[in-house]
Sequence to fold (141 residues):
Amino acid sequence: MAPMNPWRRRDISVDTTARRVVDLTEEVAAFCREGGSGLLSVFVPHATAGVALMETGSGSEADLVETLGRLLPRDDRYQHRHGAPGHGADHLLPALIGPSVVIPVEEGQMLLGTWQRIVLVDLNADNPNRRVRLSLLGGGG
Fold:
């Protein structure tokens, strides 16, 4: 009998044209419901986007975008200067909002807190087509 593969992976595509903060929770939950327990990595392989856990639907998304706008102004102060004006700020975003989160999964269910949602944060208007990599490392059920 072949040994069980403790690793499952899927990439999802996300368009951030209309939103700077995109809730990924339901799509990630569907991946987890396919079964298994372990540690789930949600990773965005881009130099100008991040992944976070936060409450959504209460105005927090707009608050986050506004706060990041104050922390990372969209002007020409940055030495990294290609793309749209202020694009240098996009390259600093992952230092504030990391490119990944790890979430425990038990029997196909993410063990998130009551108000925690998984979001992609992308302020880079130059590249709205994003890929998010989901990887579940663990045993069976």
Remarks:
- The radius of gyration is 17 Å.
- The domain at 7-137 is CATH 2.60.120.460 (Jelly Rolls).
